[in-house]
Design the sequence.
C-alpha cells in the first residue's frame, strides 16, 4: 500500500472548525465515524485536537493534507458563515476535487444561492447538498435537527452519518431527505422564520409581565417554568425560564437586566419574509418579528420619541392569576398561528419550486434537536398525517378546535395590552391574521375599486366573469 493510500482513511471532512463545525465533528466521532477537519486558523485546529482524544479525528490547517486524508469519492462538509465565505471555500476546494466528489453546505445559506451553487458544481461533475442544521452549538455536539436537500443518491452516501449524529425522538432520528435542489435550505429558512415569530411573541409576554404587571425576574422565571410544563412546552419557553434566573458574574444582578434592548439579525428571517412576498403567501407574524428587530436598533430615535409621546405607564389592576392564565393561552394561540403561516409558506414553495416536501416529515424532524421543538409539533405532525396536502394548519379539525378554545384569551390580552400601552404587535397581528383568514368577506373590493379609479387596473365582479373598468368620474362602466 502506498503512503498516499494509507493517508486516505477518513470518511468525511469538515471545513470550518468554529464552535458549530468542531462540535459536529466531535458528534460524528462519538458515533464511530472518522473525520478530518480543516481550518485556516491554527487555533481552531488545535482546539479540535485537544477535544478529540480517543476518537478517529484529525485536524489540519493545510488544504493539501486535508484532501489527501479523505477516502475517495470524497465527502466534504462546509460550516462557515453564509454568503461569500461559502463561495470562497468552494473555490479553494475545487482544484483538489474529482468528479463524483460531494460538497455539503451545512450553513444557513440563502436557498437561491444554493440553487446557483448546485448548477455550478453539477456542471463540473461535483455533487452538492444544501443542508439546514438547527440546534445551536449544543445541538451540533449532542444531536441537531438536520434538513438535507439535493440529489437523493448524494444524500444516501451520507445518510448513515446524519442519522447517527441527529437528535432522536422515540428512537427516530431527526433527519430525513426533504427534496431536490435547495429544499433543505428553504425548509431551514422557514424554520428560522417561525423561530423569529415565536421569540417575538414570548418577548411580548415578558414585556406585559414586566411593565404591565410589574413582576420581578423570579416571578417571571416561575411563570415560564410553569408554562413549560403544560401546552406551551417547548425549547424556547424552557430556556426563557432559565434566562430569568441567571445571575451576572460582573454585577451580581440578574443578567437579563444588563442586556441591551437591541436585537439584530443575520438574514434568515428577512429571507423568509422576502420569499413569502414573492410567493404571495401572508406570514404577518413572522414579518412583524423581523420588523421589530429592525425597530429595536433605532434606540436613539426611540428615546427621543418616548419624550415626545409621553404617557404615564399604567399597571394591570385586575385578577393577576386569571390574566396570567389568559396570557399563557393567548401565547399558545399566537404560536399555533405562527406555525400555520410558516407551514403554509412551505406548502406553496413545495409546489412552486418542485421540492415535493412531505410536511409531516418536516415537522417530525423538528420535534428534537432544533430551536423550535415543542410539544405542539406532535399535533402538527398528526394534522399532516391525516391530510398530507393540507394548505393551512388552521383548517385542521384538532388545531382549529384548540384555537377556538383560546381565541378569546388572545382577544382579551390584546385589548389589555392596548389599554396599558405595552406594545404587543406580534400578538395583535396574529389575531388580525386569524380574523382575516376566517372571514368569508374582506374589504378587498374597495381596494379593487380604488386601483381601477386611479390607475384603470380593472376589477372583477361577483355576477360576471372577466375584467371590468369604470370611468369613475362619469359613472360609465365599460
Sequence:
Amino acid at each position: 500500500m502506498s503512503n498516499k493510500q494509507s493517508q486516505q482513511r477518513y470518511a468525511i471532512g469538515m471545513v470550518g472548525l468554529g464552535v458549530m463545525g468542531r462540535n459536529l465533528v466531535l458528534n460524528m466521532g462519538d458515533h464511530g465515524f472518522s473525520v478530518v477537519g480543516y481550518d485556516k486558523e491554527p487555533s481552531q485546529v488545535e482546539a479540535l485536537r485537544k477535544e478529540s482524544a480517543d476518537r478517529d479525528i484529525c485536524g489540519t490547517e493545510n488544504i493539501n493534507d486535508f484532501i489527501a486524508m479523505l477516502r475517495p469519492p470524497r465527502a466534504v462538509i462546509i460550516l462557515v458563515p453564509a454568503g461569500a465565505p461559502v463561495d470562497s471555500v468552494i473555490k479553494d476546494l475545487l482544484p483538489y476535487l474529482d468528479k463524483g466528489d460531494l460538497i455539503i453546505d451545512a450553513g444557513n445559506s440563502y436557498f437561491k444561492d444554493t440553487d446557483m451553487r448546485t448548477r455550478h458544481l453539477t456542471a463540473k461533475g461535483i455533487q452538492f447538498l444544501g443542508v439546514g442544521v438547527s440546534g445551536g452549538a449544543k445541538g451540533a455536539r449532542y444531536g441537531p435537527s438536520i434538513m438535507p436537500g439535493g440529489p437523493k443518491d448524494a444524500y444516501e452516501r451520507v445518510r448513515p452519518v446524519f442519522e447517527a449524529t441527529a437528535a432522536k425522538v422515540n428512537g427516530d432520528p431527526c433527519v430525513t431527505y426533504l427534496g431536490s435542489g435547495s429544499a433543505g435550505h428553504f425548509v431551514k429558512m422557514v424554520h428560522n422564520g417561525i423561530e423569529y415569530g415565536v421569540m417575538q411573541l414570548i418577548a411580548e409576554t415578558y414585556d406585559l409581565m414586566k411593565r404591565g404587571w410589574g413582576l420581578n425576574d423570579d416571578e417571571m422565571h416561575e411563570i415560564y417554568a410553569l408554562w413549560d410544563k403544560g401546552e406551551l412546552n417547548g425549547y424556547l419557553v424552557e430556556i426563557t425560564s432559565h434566562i430569568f434566573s441567571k445571575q451576572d458574574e460582573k454585577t451580581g444582578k440578574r443578567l437579563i437586566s444588563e442586556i441591551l434592548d437591541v436585537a439584530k439579525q443575520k438574514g434568515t428571517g428577512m429571507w423568509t419574509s422576502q420569499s413569502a412576498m414573492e410567493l404571495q403567501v401572508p406570514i404577518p407574524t413572522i414579518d412583524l418579528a423581523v420588523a421589530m428587530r429592525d425597530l429595536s436598533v433605532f434606540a436613539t430615535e426611540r428615546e427621543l420619541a418616548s419624550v415626545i409621546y409621553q404617557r404615564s405607564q399604567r399597571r394591570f389592576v385586575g385578577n393577576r392569576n386569571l390574566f396570567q392564565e389568559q396570557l399563557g393561552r393567548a401565547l399558545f394561540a399566537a404560536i399555533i398561528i405562527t406555525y400555520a403561516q410558516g407551514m403554509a409558506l412551505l406548502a406553496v414553495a413545495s409546489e412552486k419550486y418542485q421540492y415535493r416536501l412531505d410536511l409531516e416529515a418536516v415537522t417530525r424532524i423538528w420535534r428534537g434537536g432544533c430551536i423550535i421543538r415543542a410539544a405542539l409539533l406532535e399535533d402538527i405532525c398528526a394534522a399532516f398525517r391525516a391530510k398530507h396536502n393540507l394548505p393551512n394548519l388552521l383548517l385542521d379539525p384538532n388545531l382549529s378546535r384548540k384555537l377556538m378554545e383560546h381565541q378569546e384569551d388572545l382577544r382579551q390580552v390584546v385589548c389589555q395590552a392596548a389599554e396599558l400601552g405595552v406594545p404587543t404587535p406580534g400578538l395583535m397581528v396574529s389575531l388580525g391574521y386569524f380574523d382575516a383568514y376566517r372571514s368569508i368577506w374582506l374589504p378587498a373590493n374597495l381596494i379593487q375599486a380604488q386601483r381601477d379609479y386611479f390607475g384603470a387596473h380593472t376589477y372583477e365582479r361577483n355576477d360576471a366573469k372577466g375584467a371590468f373598468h369604470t370611468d369613475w368620474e362619469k359613472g360609465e362602466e365599460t
